[in-house]
Amino acid sequence: MSMDKVYLNDYEKPPYAVKSIDLVFDLHETKTIVKSKMKITRLCEPSRPLLLDGEELELLRVVLDGRELHESEYELSELGMSLHLLPESFTLEIENSVNPEANTSLDGLYRSGGIFCTQNEPEGFRRITYFMDRPDVMAVYSTKIIADKRAYPVLLSNGNLFESGELEGGKHYAIWKDPFPKPSYLYALVAGDLGCVNDSFETMSAKKIELNIYCDKGNEAKCSHAMASLKASMRWDEERFGREYDLDIYNIVAVDSFNMGAMENKGLNVFNSHYVLADADTATDENFLGIESVIAHEYFHNWTGNRITCRDWFQLTLKEGLTVFRDQEFSSDMNTRSVQRISDVKALQERQFVEDASPTSHPIKPDSYIEINNFYTATIYEKGAEVIRMIHTMLGEEGFRKGMDLYFETFDGQAVRTEDFVWAMQKASGFNLEQFTLWYSQSGTPEVDVTTRFDKKEQRFEITLSQSYLSPTQSGQKPYFFPFMLGLIDRNGKEISLKLQNSQNQPFIERGILLISKESESFVFEEIKEEPVMSINRNFSAPIKLHTAYTLQEYAFLMAHDSDAFNRFEASQTIAAMVLHTLIDAVQINGPMALSETYAEAFAKVLLDMDMDMSLKAASLTLPSVSMLMQERKVLDVEAIYAARNFLKRELVRRYGAEIRVQYDSLNVSGEYRLDKAAIGRRKLKNTLLSFMSALRDESLAFAQYEHANNMTDRLSALALLANSKTQAREKALGDFYTRYKSNTLVMNKYLSVIASSELKETLENVKTLLNDEVFDIKVPNLVRSLIGSFARNALHFHAADGSGYVFVSQKIRELDKLNPQIASGLAGAFKDYGRLNEKAKVLMKEELESIISVEGLSKNVYEIVSKILGEK
Fold this sequence. Notes:
alpha+beta; five-stranded mixed beta sheet; 31 strands
């Protein structure tokens, strides 16, 4: 297989256009017959061939304008078919067969769990039939599905149901027609014996839309939250962006075997069941919120992704970054905005910042790739959303909405570029975004040093911001342009009115925004009577890393007084990280460790603040994660990080255990499970407090919570804590959980993750044992991510000193690469810290990386990731 790179600069417009494609599927488990009939127009000189992508297909016949072609009249290869000397307009019919049962990559048409399903983004359609499988080839699709009625009573595809009926031999058919042109990656087909939950939605123009969620029979009751989330997202998109749904029917199908979270196929969304099925007994609060977000995300794609799609795959963030921003805004409106922002930024910092600092770093708009599946990343999605958010911050809600309206009006029905989106924003607002577009082409996380100077006599306060760029994969970067939200707080905790000296920023400073565009620049604030404390990058207005000379005392002040809820949280994390890094240094030299009194007092103020939002309070009390601490260490010492975190937790409990217990008891009351902001906040705070109390290795409280829990949030929180102990309570709880839920695959994902995430030294052996358990199946992506993926994210054991973690994960990558390269390459990303290991660990990891890359027949997916990691100097 070729490992050649694809380059953005090599893009050429498609030489042929496909006006329509009519598909007929005669479904069979091992030999499905696919017939396509395409109306095609040549847009190039006659000598240029028509190249159709096709992989793992058995060609049966080719018919051009009614005449069957001899095999000498076309050329076949492992990658497709080429036809020469074609007329200007013609009809091309192709018949081929595929084997869905053998398709373990879950790319194209596959059969799993008794269900036929497709996944075509980005390049799966070529595994169904021969086609120009690229996003800028947009055609009108119709589909006829033929299948055994008893085994597959439900037959679904894109668009609206046009016709259905009975056939001989116990078969039946359904014809679906989608009137909107779309690229092949948005094509979908599902057939199975499925249960269904039905509802309807009336749009703002009084059009009634039929809504259906299909799932395995018996799970219908777990679809109610997903349905409510769908209806809420449809209403929200009408109110916020004026976008109305355009078909007569909207279908969602939940399947267990799916490589992604969900797929926005036009009118037929296919979802990983993890993001559809939920009830209080089997799903956590986090699961419920995740369902709400992902249901909305896929629905919002109807306009930002489907009606307007990508010209090529380098533009992926055009649809994904924009749609993540939209789903984040939806979740903020549905829940508590500040808490949602904290959640979104934590995910960015823990996943995308790590990616930006690794050998796999790339811009949100890459300029090359070997395997496009490797670029469905936190950079494309989450950082891409932050880029959109910065535009929103600078333009304001009204200006951004005008830009969105112009974008929809101008490009509806087209495959476009990121430049087209930026053009719409500039055109509608008159705001110059030329320098801002560097965010699309430059990789890495900008770092900003902030220094200050106060002139008491002149009552002036000067702030200087200096940018630096430390991308591991690029050099010669230019200064970024970004909004920098800030506030100045006096020593009494009150906001100071902002007045800039001689600045074009004045219209923006009225909104608390500085516009940063130079490598280094200073801003002078006037009429400042006493030296203030800065609250900077409020609401995380730009995805940057900040460096200040702030002391623990100043961060403690911000924890107590900052009016920006996100920055109060950020101050809590920064001060805790400063304390933890001091403790980590002490562990490494076997020095004495002590609890910082400044931090202890700041922690207590948050703990004892009974007026604080409980979700915000829980987030502020929680210590920085191992992942966040690892990012700031030049050479990784994972054991020292764990030791420091555990020490700090224990000392805080020894100091404030009584107060923690009183609050825990006040929250640990029985009652009906509710899914509202207040109830979610109470559970979040309760379980945060429980995690502190468990630091002293008294598991009685966690076990009592496990036994009496009436919801999965409380039960799983307790179980995860018990999994770190070597007690009878641990064995009893784990045994009960397994017995209670072993027939529920979604809950078993949680069980596998708990075992694989444990700090116990026998964790690796426990994971290996579970590989042979009846609940595990290596062909199911969710189970692989839950067991092997969770272990790979368990830094303590993945980075075990003897290299056993590296050996285990590399063995699984090699095994999975033969089954599902996408899942294998995802695991390979666990090795991205190779360059920051100590010399002994680096030798051990390098040995495993080289064993992977030397495998004969290694997929492009895994090769691209591992070769980048090994290429790091």
